[in-house]
Design brief:
alpha/beta; two-stranded antiparallel ribbon; globular
Length: 330
């Protein structure tokens, strides 16, 4: 099982130094990858719990974000080239890039340059977004009803630009004649592409299968839910003329992570379950269950609040030195 760190750039208060310390430790501990979070705004209505949809459109979540609208969170996209410069081994990416906020051709060209800045260490994770208020702030309100189609076109354009000297595309969200977009990515045929789908397993599975993607990223998934996602993706792969199987993919989930002194109630509570919050023993047992269920890489997610970075730094060391040897031996 690989380990990935989900940087807490989306917090009411966070500093560049804190993100730097976490990144340095992830590299020292030989983590596979470090990811940022894509959140452009926090609407003021979130503070009152009056957003149009609950977090991630997941019904068990509140209609408000866990970060204040007046918070000093940092944007995830500019942090990716910064990560490229700050690191030399760990892979980098953003989970996930909400494609409707970006022009597909511009995104593809800029990501190719970032792959050069990192000497071929870029992961690309894409998704549709879920917050109408954020679409409005990004001048993308008109895309919201068709956001899933925007993801599809973006994947097609990225793969086309990255694998052809010249490329043209004629779709709904991009329409351009044969053009060159500069340097191709270092990674061939292109950087790994991950798809994030939180609600519709069949849609996510069809994207992964149709476009030959490298992996899938969920959020707060139980081992049982991961088995369902893996089954859906494998079914889609079997329906296509491909030799790829579920074993060829990275299966990931963003999981809140804290080591506690006392045992924590981990009984099912939907996406709010303390899946990787608990004592070292509880987390060891849970990671063993995840490994058996087919999770290949947890994205360890420091909570939005109440857990200082100094605590997370200690927890990551304990995870690597005390917990993972037991998980790997299982």
């Amino acid at each position: 099982m690989k380990l990935a760190l989900y940087l807490p750039n989306f917090r009411t208060k966070v500093t560049v130094k804190e993100l730097e310390d976490l990144t340095d430790l992830a590299e020292d501990l030989d983590f596979d990858s470090v990811w940022t979070l894509d959140r452009v705004i926090v609407p003021e209505s979130s503070d009152r719990g009056e957003m149009q949809h609950p977090f991630g459109m997941m019904q068990e979540m509140p209609r408000g974000l866990p970060v204040a609208s007046r918070g000093e969170f940092l944007q995830g996209m500019p942090l990716i080239p910064w990560l490229a410069a700050k690191t030399s081994k760990v892979r980098i990416g953003m989970s996930i890039i909400d494609t409707p906020y970006r022009s597909p051709g511009v995104l593809a060209a800029e990501l190719a340059t970032i792959d050069h800045l990192s000497n071929g260490r870029l992961n690309v994770a894409v998704g549709a977004g879920w917050m109408p208020e954020e679409f409005a702030a990004c001048s993308a309100t008109h895309i919201f009803p068709k956001r899933h189609k925007h993801v599809r076109e973006t994947i097609e354009i990225m793969q086309g630009i990255w694998t052809n000297e010249l490329f043209e595309y004629h779709g709904e969200f991009a329409d351009f004649e044969l053009s060159g977009f500069g340097a191709k990515p270092v990674q061939q045929p292109h950087p790994p592409i991950f798809f994030s789908g939180l609600k519709d397993a069949k849609r996510a599975a069809s994207r992964v299968a149709k476009y030959g993607l490298s992996g899938w990223i969920g959020i707060q998934d139980t081992p049982e839910e991961l088995r369902e996602w893996r089954g859906a993706i494998q079914q889609e792969l079997e329906a296509m003329d491909t030799s790829r199987t579920i074993e060829d993919l990275e299966i990931c989930s963003m999981l809140w992570f804290v080591i506690t002194d006392e045992e924590i109630d981990q009984s099912p509570a939907g996406k709010l379950t303390n899946l990787l919050v608990g004592t070292a023993g509880q987390i060891t047992d849970q990671l063993k269950r995840y490994k058996e269920a087919g999770l290949t890489m947890p994205l360890l997610w420091p909570p939005f609040q109440d857990v200082p970075v100094a605590k997370t730094l200690d927890d990551l060391k304990r995870l690597k030195e005390e917990i993972m040897p037991k998980v790997d031996a299982a």
